[in-house]
Design a protein that fits this description.
Blueprint lengths: L19 H23 L12 H14 L5 H6 L4 H5 L6 H15 L2 H5 L6 H14 L4
Helix pairs in contact: 1-2, 1-5, 5-7
The structure holds protoporphyrin IX containing FE (HEM).
């Protein structure tokens, strides 16, 4: 982490995704989508940033996304205040790493309506959220 680094985004301008997404998908489909995202991370150039066994990471992320998309606040209940930027500070997230992370998510979103019942009308809003929030995770 570079203490002088300023993330290229104002977090107040990042709109949360629609909470209707959870109503359409449910917990199981969101968890499957995140599992598939982690399978993409497995094959990606940023694989080494993650622990060798990514099952716990995938579960934590699923808990976060379930709450974010309108479901029960599982992440808060299990792990406390998300403070996502602070939790990502131990990992050197630069533009290149962020782009790889986003590309992994994009590969999953390409099939999300048919595979996980992701509501098509909310895909653009969700992509915008990922785009902005992943800029906010950058720290170098
Ligand atoms: C929309 C943006 C992002 C969201 C919503 C997100 C979400 C999460 C969540 C919920 C966790 C689990 C935190 C915990 O340990 O409790 C996590 C961990 C992590 N994330 Fe992200 N993340 C984002 C962007 C990124 C980016 C851009 C990178 C790197 C390029 C990244 C790398 C990591 C790493 C290395 C971990 C730790 C995994 C572990 O130790 O289990 N994340 N992220």
């Amino acid at each position: 982490m570079n203490p002088n680094f300023v993330p290229p985004v104002n977090p107040q301008q990042i709109a949360s995704p629609s909470r209707d997404i959870y109503a359409a998908m449910g917990q199981e489909n969101i968890s499957r989508m995140i599992d598939d995202f982690y399978m993409e991370l497995e094959k990606s150039p940023i694989r080494e940033m993650f622990p060798r066994d990514m099952r716990a990471s995938a579960e934590k992320s699923a808990a976060f996304f379930i709450g974010l998309l309108g479901g029960p606040p599982l992440y808060h209940q299990r792990y406390g205040n998300p403070m996502m930027r602070a939790r990502h500070l131990p990992f050197p997230i630069n533009q290149g790493a962020r782009d790889e992370w986003l590309a992994c998510f994009e590969r999953v979103l390409e099939h999300a309506t048919e595979r996980y019942k992701f509501p098509a009308e909310h895909l653009e809003g969700f992509r915008k959220f990922l785009h902005g929030f992943s800029l906010w995770m950058m720290n170098c």
